[in-house]
Amino acid sequence: MSKAKALVSGSDGRIGRATVKELEAHGYAVTCADINPRQPWNTQQVDFTDLGQVIGVMQGQDAVIHLAAIPSPAAHPAEVVFRANVMSTFNVLEAAAILGISNITMASSISALGYAFRHRAFNPLYLPIDEAHPLLSQDCYGLSKMIGEELAEGFLRREPDMSLVSLRFTAVLDEWAQAWLPAAREQPTDDVSTYGAFWTFVDARDAAAACRLALEFEQPGHEVFYICAPIIYRKEDIRSLMAKHFPGDYAIGESIRGTVSPVDVSKAERLLGWKARYSWDGAPLA
Q1: 202 pairs with which residues across the strands?
Q2: Per the domain annotation, does 286 fall within a domain?
Q3: Rounded to whole angstroms, how far apart are CA atoms 252 and 233?
């Protein structure tokens, strides 16, 4: 899809900014859209919960990377988070079906698993977690991401030639986040939103590369991928951390030890050709 027209929703957010740069560096003609424009490029102000606006901004596009969302349940009432995230995803898929755009990449989240913002404690069924692990969300944000993936399945039944990709991002690190991580490593807060993502992370540049590679995947169907680095950002052994925060009896693969991530990204490496390049501090991975 060299020099194709690609729309990035949520273009001025953490992943969006990096994705716009990634696409432009690879020859794409990028349309930026965000409800709160705050970057120096020409961002169109679009409310993605309004279908008319979504159809308008998606006209003439070859592909869409849908990143616009409320990124956690922390700053809004639950119904606001749920409605915004579900309706924006529905509208992008509905507009794509109406306009005949078959290539849609969507930001899902590791929170769809249900651990990051859980109301009641529960353990993973096994480690490493992969795409076959059930999604067990209880909270408004995780549920909104679960339903976003179900919407993709529904639209695929409607339009079988669509190429739909859901990327389950974990904590996305940019320069601002990298500034506070050293302190977090020394004096960890151990709140549920932190250990509920299993101390995983992904550099914003690696997240952007995953978006581009997903856009270029172009195979009919709906595929889901975890996107995170192969290590955690904590210094402690992952088995000790899991035993502390997720005590109980569940299968743990032999490879899960030291600072190895408990989330398996081999599917993204195999099918998308994606590989994490950066560590928690922004330096290249060894």
Answers
A1: 172
A2: no
A3: 19
| Each residue's pLDDT tens digit, 226-248 | 999 999 999 999 999 999 999 99
Q: What residues contact residue 285 under an 8 Å CB cut-off, 6+ apart? A: 229, 230, 231, 276, 277, 278, 279
Contact 100, 60 (CB under 8 A): no
Tokens representing 32 are: 């930026």
Within a domain: 160: yes
Residue type for 15, please? I
For residue 13, is it within any domain? yes
Quick check: is 283 in a domain?
A: no
Whichever domain contains 167, its CATH number is 3.40.50.720
Structural domain boundaries, residue 25: 5-272
**Which H or E run contains 172?**
strand 171-173
Instruction: Please state the domain count of the chain.
Output: 1
pTM listed for this prediction: 0.96
Q: What is the pLDDT of residue 1?
A: 45
Both tokens assigned to 52 = 């008319």
Q: Using the 8-state DSSP alphabet, how is residue 268 labeled? A: I
* Residue numbers of the chain with a pLDDT score lower than 50: 1-2
Q: To 5 degrees, how large is the angle CA 63–CA 67–CA 69?
A: 140
DSSP characters over 214-253: HHTT--SEEEEEEE--SB-SSSS-HHHHHHHHS-S--EE-
Q: Helix/strand/coil (H, E, C) string of 16-75?
A: HHHHHHHHHHCCCEEEEEECCCCCCCCCEECCCCCHHHHHHHHCCCCEEEECCCCCCCCC
Between helices 78-99 and 140-158, what is the axis angle to 10°? 20
Residue with tokens 């690609």: 6
